[in-house]
């Protein structure tokens, strides 16, 4: 197949000059033989949206530290599944790390566990060892 980027009037004149392809190309057959590909819209986030909408969507547990006053800090744990008993988890966390804590009901985030002190690493290892959350589903935030 010969690819030409010449206007049709110039093409017929050029082909007639050389006489090589006189019967092969005429205007109607040449224009109808061209395959036109119209570019379609490409959605780069289609795969990501398909993964998030399925039943295997990852639910992250967020562990954050908040600075109170001076050297005092607060560790918050949010995103645990609702089927777990927050009070029992809190009781074990308090006993394990020798700190005080509470379960707070937040209108946007649901139930949030609060612990005294910076317990981010301790809480993440505890949740993984207890089998509550997988390690890849834990996000640790803070300084």
UniProtKB/TrEMBL annotation:
Q: Name one Pfam family in it.
A: SUI1
In this chain the SUI1 domain maps to 61-131
Q: Which InterPro entries match?
A: SUI1, SUI1_dom_sf, SUI1_euk
Annotated keywords: Protein biosynthesis, Translation regulation
Q: Does the keyword Metal-binding apply?
A: no
CDD domains of this UniProt entry? eIF1_SUI1
Q: State the superkingdom.
A: Eukaryota
Protein purpose: Probably involved in translation.
Q: Which family does it belong to?
A: Belongs to the SUI1 family.
This protein is called what?
SUI1 domain-containing protein
- Species the sequence originates in: Gossypium arboreum
């Amino acid at each position: 197949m010969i690819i030409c980027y010449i206007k049709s009037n110039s093409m017929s004149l050029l082909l007639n000059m050389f006489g090589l392809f006189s019967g092969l190309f005429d205007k109607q057959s040449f224009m109808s033989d061209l395959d036109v590909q119209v570019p379609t819209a490409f959605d780069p986030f289609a795969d990501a949206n398909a993964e998030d909408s399925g039943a295997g969507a990852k639910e992250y547990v967020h562990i954050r530290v908040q600075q109170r006053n001076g050297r005092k800090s607060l560790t918050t744990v949010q995103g645990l599944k609702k089927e777990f008993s927050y009070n029992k988890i809190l009781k074990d966390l308090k006993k394990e790390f020798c700190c005080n804590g509470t379960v707070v009901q937040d209108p946007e985030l649901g139930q949030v566990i609060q612990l005294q002190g910076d317990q981010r690493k301790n809480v993440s290892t505890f949740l993984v060892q207890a089998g509550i959350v997988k390690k890849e589903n834990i996000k640790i935030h803070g300084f």
